[in-house]
Structure formats: structure tokens, C-alpha cells
Amino acid sequence: MTPTPPTATAHRPGLRRAMLALMAGPVLALSLAAGTAPAAAQSLDQLRANGQVCERPDGLLHVLSGGPGVQQTVDQINQQRLSTYQQVARDTNTKIEQVRIISGEKLRAKYGGCP
């Protein structure tokens, strides 16, 4: 069995735990947006499946198609993500840019990135 190469989070165990917790951020953001945005009737998974949004390398969503309702939903999710990233950065004494890059890598690995 070959050893797995170290990742950016391997050097900071606290950051690794925080990043795992961070993955819950988009789910929380969607649930917060569900009561306010017209397009929020569609889940983030539906928006992804329909090709309307994609994951950027910086840990934020990008709108590929759809109307103002989709943009409003994405803006709300991105605001929640940024808030979560800031909290993780504070909690782990890490720069927010590093948190965003690691998140972007994880989200793109799981859902694919923007074309």
C-alpha cells in the first residue's frame, strides 16, 4: 500500500477538523436562503444538476445560467460561506485565503468545478 501524500491540512490538525466542519456551511446557507429567495425552492443540488451553478477554486459558487432568483440564492450562499470561512480562519489562526482555497479544492473534488 502506498502512503498518501500530505495535504495542506495535514500540517495543521485543527484546520483539518475545521475544514470537515466547514462542509456543513453550504447546507446551512441553503436552508437560510430557502425562506427568502424565489429560486431557493430549488436546492443547491438541483441547481448543480441543472448546470446553473458551479464551484469556483476560491470556495464560492458561480452562476452559469438562470435568472435573478438564482443569482440571489448564490449570493446568499456565498455570503454564508464567506462568514463560515472567516470563522474557521479565526478559530484556526489561518489566513482566510488559505481556508477558501482548501474549501474550493474539497468542493470541486466533490461536485466538480466550473467549466
UniProtKB/TrEMBL annotation:
Signal peptide range: 1-29
A Pfam family that the UniProt record links to this protein: DUF1318
The entry's keywords: Signal
Name of this chain's protein: DUF1318 domain-containing protein
Organism of origin: Roseospira navarrensis
InterPro entries, sorted: TAT_signal (IPR006311), YdbL (IPR008309)
